[in-house]
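Hello,

Our lab assistant flagged a job as stuck in the queue for most of the afternoon. It eventually completed. Since we weren't sure the result was trustworthy after the delay, we are filing this so someone can double-check. Below is the sequence as submitted and the structure that was eventually returned. Let us know if re-running is recommended.
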Amino acid sequence: MNQLDTLIHMANQIADNNSHYGTQQEAAERVAAHLKKFWARSMKQQIIGYLQDDGSNLTPLARIAIEQMMTTLRPEPADLAG
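-- returned structure --
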């Protein structure tokens, strides 16, 4: 299993573990908060890139959470220099 496969598996597990919290939107917010807090920037960038390129192996809840995370991440100064 390569690193991306591991990240996909982890994101799906986190989503599954939080799927029973309130509405789907509330559960997705919990998952997004977890990813933002505990995943390294490189991990977040890789899973976002995967979602944008394909995303087919992510569960629906994981997809929603990653989309939410994308909209709330602040760019790093190096990202702005582009």
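-- support follow-up --
The delay was a queue issue, not a problem with the job. The result is valid. The first helix runs from residue 3 to 18. The radius of gyration is 12 Å.
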